[in-house]
Amino acid sequence: MFQIDRSYIENVNLESLQSRIWDIRSDFKDDPTLPHIENYGTTEEAFEAYLEKKQKFEDFKDTWRSRRLLIFGSVFLLTVAAFSLFVKGATWEAYATGFMLCMLIYMVYMTIVAFRGKKFQHNPNETFIKALLFWDENREG
To answer: What is the distance between the alpha carbons of residues 132 and 141, in angstroms, rounded to a whole number?
Structure first.
């Protein structure tokens, strides 16, 4: 038998936040030191709905991270190609316009993230998630 070297994925987080929270709550539900949802002023249904929305937001950010170079490269190349077709001798203008369009796309993305991320601040569900993750990192055994 051969052994597969998996040392290259030790520092990669392959789990989602939602599954990590579910694992903590299901694996250690009998532990008396585990933070309880009732102490954070929220209900189980509201927390599950919040966790699903937060996971969708995190997935949106991960999708952007994986595709941003493709988006920027395509926009930049299409802009330079369009300039070269319609405007003769305007090379630096083409590069500048492509760069500006890429920056505009990035600014729109950052604005979307800021507005969507704002609803996750100062929320009792967010406090509960932080408490669970802190408890998981600092538990004994």
So the answer is: 16
Are the beta carbons of 34 and 119 closer than 8 angstroms?
no
- Sign for the CA dihedral angle at 109, 110, 115, 118 comes to positive
Q: Which of 52, 57, 58, 39 is CA-nearest to residue 124?
A: 39
Q: Which residues of 94-110 are buried (b: 16+ CB within 10 A; e: fewer)?
A: beebbeeebeeeeeeee
The answer to whether the CB of 135 falls within 8 A of the CB of 33 is yes
Residue 50 CB neighbour total at 10 angstroms: 19
Would you say 79 and 112 are in contact if contact means Cβ atoms under 8 Å apart?
no
At 27-57, the pLDDT tens digits run 888 888 888 888 888 888 999 999 999 988 9
CA distances from 123 to 48, 96, 120 (A): 14, 42, 6
User: Per-residue pLDDT averaged across 80-98, rounded?
Assistant: 88
Within the chain, strands assigned E span none
